[in-house]
Specification:
Strand 1 and strand 2 form a beta hairpin. The protein has one helix and seven strands. Helix content is 9%, strand content 55%. It has a six-stranded antiparallel barrel with strand order 1-2-3-6-5-4. The chain is elongated, with a radius of gyration of 18 Å.
Length: 137
């Protein structure tokens, strides 16, 4: 099979892809796409499920990002926004493509093991339309 995309570390920016400011570099990410087909079931379908073609309800994109903590001002602002429930425009750069849009950051876990860098796990929950853009190297 040709044309595979290798996984890579994710670069997080606040703002859009071209002018955004890097706030967390090189994290492991998992992207979850959500959406449910709209069912059109009625007596005429004979008990079979029939979905509205080309439509989904409650579409969303959640991006889970695991990073090594740093104490720069941008990271501290991200943590403050997560605690306050503040949404903002974020871009997730995966080298060959990126996701951009309005997200609410949530801190899932912080791991502080003795003599090891502090790790944080965030989930960025979409709020509104998210764009996926292929990047030509």
């Amino acid at each position: 099979m040709a044309g595979e995309i290798n996984g890579g570390l994710c670069l997080l920016k606040v703002g859009d892809a071209s002018t955004g400011t890097e706030i967390i570099g090189q994290g492991d990410a998992t992207i979850t796409h959500n959406g449910a087909p709209i069912e059109l079931n009625n007596k005429s379908t004979g008990g079979w499920r029939v979905n509205l073609d080309g439509s989904l309800s409650t579409k969303s994109v959640d991006i889970a990002l695991n990073v090594t903590f740093n104490d720069d001002a941008a990271t501290e602002q991200l943590i403050a926004d997560a605690f306050a429930g503040v949404s903002g425009v974020y871009t997730f750069d995966f080298v060959q493509y990126n996701y951009s849009g309005n997200f609410n950051p949530v801190i899932n876990t912080e791991t502080a093991s003795k003599d090891v860098a502090v790790e944080q796990a965030f989930t960025f929950m979409s709020s509104g339309e998210i764009t996926r853009t292929k990047v030509t190297p």
